[in-house]
Design goal:
The chain is an alpha+beta fold. It is about 20% helix and about 30% strand. The longest helix has 15 residues, at about 95-105. The relative contact order is 0.21. Residues about 170-175 have low confidence and may be disordered.
Length: about 180
């Protein structure tokens, strides 16, 4: 059995080691890192999974925005990375982390009306209500597969680029 706790209860270097194990040490060059560049994760929406005291999973959420071609900015929350220890995959840790982040974002008012979005496999993330219905005209600051750019209902359906949020949660990240 595993427990979900706020990610702040886990050492940052342990989270980094987990991310390296799950995604490789070259992960910092991925487009997702460019999208959230200069931002800190939103503490209230970031969680860790521990099993007998050991870190086995994590999820982080970030304040980003769709910077519209029309000059407007729509605040959103970028979900991920969702990381699970390679030795503990396929037992529900990632699903539990994702549902916790969604429930807190929706129920706690943490994210307000901000849409949740991510980059990931639609075959996995559709179980959480993510699809590409609104993301067809979105761009990212790096290469990506359009079918993997996903959002939940309420996401803005207009052209623009997703990047760091200029004005965001008080105390959650740095200004770009």
């Amino acid at each position: 059995m595993f427990d979900l706790v706020p990610i702040a209860e886990v050492a940052a270097d342990a989270v980094e080691a987990l991310l390296d194990a799950a995604f490789g040490t070259d992960r910092h060059g991925r487009t997702a890192y460019r999208v959230r560049e200069g931002m800190d994760a939103i503490p209230e929406l970031s969680f860790a999974a521990r099993e007998q005291g050991a870190l086995v999973g994590s999820i982080q959420c970030w304040p980003v925005a769709l910077h519209g071609d029309d000059g407007g900015q729509t605040p959103m929350v970028m979900v991920g990375p969702v990381a699970v220890s390679p030795a503990r995959q396929n037992i529900g840790i990632g699903r539990a982390l994702m549902w916790r982040a969604i429930r807190v974002a929706m129920a706690g008012g943490i994210a307000g009306d901000d849409a949740l979005m991510l980059i990931g496999d639609p075959e996995y993330y559709d179980q959480f209500g993510y699809d590409d219905a609104a993301t067809g005209a979105w761009r990212l600051p790096g290469p990506f597969e359009p079918r993997r750019l996903l959002a939940r209902a309420g996401a803005p359906d207009r052209p623009g680029i997703v990047g760091p949020r200029i004005a965001h949660f008080a105390g959650a990240g740095k200004s770009a």
